[in-house]
Design a protein that fits this description.
This protein has 478 residues and is of the alpha+beta class. The chain contains 17 helices and eleven strands. It folds into two domains: 266 residues, 2-Layer Sandwich (Cytochrome Bc1 Complex, Chain A, domain 1), CATH 3.30.830.10; 181 residues, Cytochrome Bc1 Complex, Chain A, domain 1 (2-Layer Sandwich), CATH 3.30.830.
């Protein structure tokens, strides 16, 4: 059994989900809608099938007959951005308990957390659950043998529609979450990333922080209501990679959704209103003209420095590809990046320094991060700002530009060298409504990026906008 459960607070800073995964985005400033992108794109690869379930879930399916396995990804638009104010952590707790037993319904018996685990183990099903700001991600891997497949589908259908949300499991998971949160708040990286997200996204759910008080205020009834309100088939997107044909893939999807009801029941509507569930989200902040610095005292031996700015949403594909190349030059290319040369090689201020882009459903951030001696934290920030300002003003050199595109294109195959990586890419493509031919055209779109494209995206996304800087460190000599 391979289980994975993101900590309740991970969606608020610890897990960055950096987009260098499959580069899910693109160059001029046209902010095309998903439908515009789909209409403008060439036909997808023949082996990649798109369809919609009878309950209105979008599905991407790719047949992979090399091994007798099926990988199933279910993405639900029920991430932490939908947490009600004062109940931060609710989305994550709901996802965790959904996998921890099912209730009795009709002729189907209840299964406790232990019994559910045994049922998964008997079928050798690998599964995981994770919660990010945008979505809940469920993953299942099982044999394509029809008997195993049908039994696994039946269990998955019950997870989606009939979670027990047992009181004892809820109390334990909430206590575990509180203990984990307290422990994490002793770590400088956690303090830095929490402060950064909160400062970048003031007034927006992306910047909301899970606290001990928000977890204490969360009840089992809140979980039941959240599940009923957000875990609906029309909010789900599904990706399948495996050793089955299209007809069986369609039957698989219908089987997993057989117990789900489309729409919101009157009871769930009432509970949602009482709990002030979010039904819509305002625009994400774009970043103001002035920079700000947040200092957090901590007895760490080194200063932990994080900088960030909201820059890009996932549907903005053209600008993403230009920004991906730019970021590779600046700090995403490891030891060959410009920040590494300035911070590590020239000045010896840090062993490593990085930059990354994390596009989200709404405007996601650009990050910079490093660790250095407390005494030289201010100097390190100064060098980073100077390096960034120079890069925004002038862009990459021709040598840097050519090398970055070559590295990105050359390394693309490693992003898809297993079914697990492929399913993650397809899941993201489907959830964010990217073109179905996204992976087929990825290297071509990198190749088409020009230095002018990079300069345009730097000017439009960064120039005249201030970065938030967080420095977590003790006083020198303390």
């Amino acid at each position: 059994m391979n289980t994975r459960s993101f900590a309740i607070f991970s969606g608020l800073g610890l897990s960055l989900f950096l987009v260098c995964l499959g580069g899910l985005h693109a160059s001029p400033t046209t902010q095309a809608t998903a439908s515009d992108e789909q209409a403008a794109s060439p036909e997808p690869r023949a082996s990649l099938n798109q369809f919609v379930s009878s309950k209105n879930s979008r599905v991407l399916f790719q047949q992979a007959p090399d091994i007798p396995m099926i990988d199933l990804a279910i993405e639900i638009d029920a991430g932490s951005r939908w947490d009600p104010q004062g109940l931060e952590g609710l989305a994550s707790l709901t996802a965790q308990l959904a996998m921890a037993g099912v209730r009795s319904e009709a002729s189907r018996p209840a299964l406790s957390e232990t019994e559910m685990g045994e049922a998964w183990a008997d079928l050798a099903v690998e599964r995981s659950v994770g919660t990010s700001r945008d979505q809940v991600s469920l993953r299942f891997r099982f044999l394509s043998d029809p008997k195993v497949r049908d039994a696994a589908i039946a269990l998955i259908a019950r997870v989606l529609a009939e979670p027990a949300m047992a009181d004892s499991v809820f109390e334990r998971q909430r206590a575990t979450g509180i203990a984990g949160l307290k422990e994490s708040l002793s770590r400088p990286q956690t303090l830095a990333t929490r402060a950064l997200w909160q400062a970048m996204y003031q007034g927006h759910p992306y910047g909301a922080l899970v606290t001990e008080a928000s977890l204490e205020a969360t009840s089992r009834d809140h979980l039941v209501a959240f599940h009923g309100f957000y875990w609906r088939p029309e909010r789900m997107s599904i990706a399948i990679v495996g050793d089955i044909g299209l007809a069986d893939a369609k039957r698989l999807v219908e089987g997993t959704q057989a117990l789900l009801q489309a729409g919101i029941s009157e009871k769930d509507q009432t509970l949602a209103a009482l709990t002030n569930f979010r039904t819509s989200l305002g625009p994400a902040p774009q970043g103001g003209p002035s920079s700000s610095t947040i200092n957090v005292d901590h007895p760490a031996s080194q200063a932990h420095i994080w900088m960030g700015l909201p820059v890009l949403a996932r549907h903005e594909l053209d600008d993403y590809f230009a920004l991906l190349v730019a970021n590779h030059v600046l700090g995403g290319g490891g030891f060959v990046s410009r920040l590494t040369k300035e911070i590590r090689e020239k000045r010896g201020m840090a062993y490593s320094v990085f930059s990354a882009v994390q596009p989200l459903a709404q405007t996601g951030p650009f990050f910079l991060g490093l660790q250095t001696q407390r005494e030289q934290a201010s100097q390190a920030v100064k060098v980073v700002n100077e390096t960034l300002a120079s890069f925004i003003a002038k862009g990459p050199s021709e040598e840097e530009f050519v090398a970055a595109k070559k590295n990105l294109i050359g390394g693309f195959a490693l992003r898809l060298d297993s079914n697990r990586k492929l399913i993650d890419n397809l899941a993201a493509i489907n959830f964010y409504r990217l073109p179905a031919n996204y992976l087929d055209t990825w290297t071509d779109r990198i190749d088409l990026v020009s230095r002018e494209d990079i300069q345009n995206v730097l000017n439009q996304r960064f120039a005249g906008r201030g970065m938030v800087t967080v420095i977590v460190a003790g006083q020198p000599g303390s």
